[in-house]
Amino acid sequence: MASGAGRATVAIAAKDLRRRIRDRSAILIGLVLPFALAGIFSLTLGGADEEGFEATFAVTDEDGGDLPASFVALLEELDFVTLEDAATAAEAERLADDGAVDAAVIFPEGFSRAAQSGEATSIEIVSHPGDDVAALVATSIARSFAARIDTVGVAVAVASPDHDPEAAARVVQAAQAAPPVVEIVEDEAASRTFSATTFFAIGMAVFFLFFTVEFGVRGLLEERNEGTLARLLVSPIPPSAILTGKALASFAVGFVSTTLLVIASTVLLDATWGDPLGVSLLVVAGVFTAVAVTALVTTLASTPAQAGSYASIVAVVGGLLGGTFFPISQAPGVFAALRFLSPQGWMMEGFQELASGGSVADALPALVGTFTIGAVCASVAWVRASRIVAR
Known about the structure:
abc type-2 transporter like fold
């Protein structure tokens, strides 16, 4: 009897799969649309993080001392900075206003003498009105340079309180020659980040998964309206085999389409999903949960059309709430926490953790969260779907 129920389950699942593949909706919704949208989003919105930051600065040295020359040498060491000549402050301002440079740094006459003697002086930053980021970078570099000069001024004031010129000169030379006490060590963070292409590939896979698997219980309602379900129930097939077969078909379509999307986006879009074991486990948990959630909401409907509408609403709202289109984890306050109310939010969290170099252990909370939602919804959906079969 058990083997007969198993054969019936497989036969029902195979029948639903053939029906789904014949109308090509599984291929379109499960693979073509998410892949196409991921490619479009990555091309239109993903260029900024791959090209890197570049800026063009001009430095005007009206002082002629050693300090402006040191600042120019500092900028020349930065591979993202292009330097332009500006002989006067007026020319520097004109270049910034015209957009020829992103920002101009002006050292006034007497700057080196004032700085080395402990007198007040300033560095002027003139930025192009349309480039706040480059202006911020130029200001940050100038402030760091000024902070180094301030330490020299403090050393002069402490070591030569009587303002002896010879003593002050010796202190200045010693302070400038001294190596930094604290060194900033830049760690390689590439393994803990992921590209915009990867984000959109993950987002589209998660978003369309809930559309891909929704035909399971909806198909049960269709067969009830067409009279096919009644013929199945009078045959020696237990109702549990009917429900399991339809759920199995939905799971198979969701699993295959998501797996193919992972492979296609990796090969063709250069997306990076991370640890294969972790990705596989999360795909299984995500497909199971998507089947359970859509099954639950479609059992609340009385017609196939209504069931499709309910499933679409859950897919869209859950996708937006879960951050499949934009990184909602960066949203302020309660909005970032709300994503965990949806299974899509847990899945996005897990996939992004893996894509940024995390291990299976790092993605474990997301796996547990995803599966927990799926288990609860599956239990309720099974009870409600059993009532549909029993009618």
